[in-house]
Amino acid sequence: MGKNHKKLSNNLEERRKSIGLTQQELSVKAEVSRKSINAIENGVYVPSTVLALKISKTLSCKVEDLFQLPE
Question: What is the pLDDT of residues 44-63, one digit of tens each?
Answer without folding.
Answer: 899 999 999 999 999 999 99
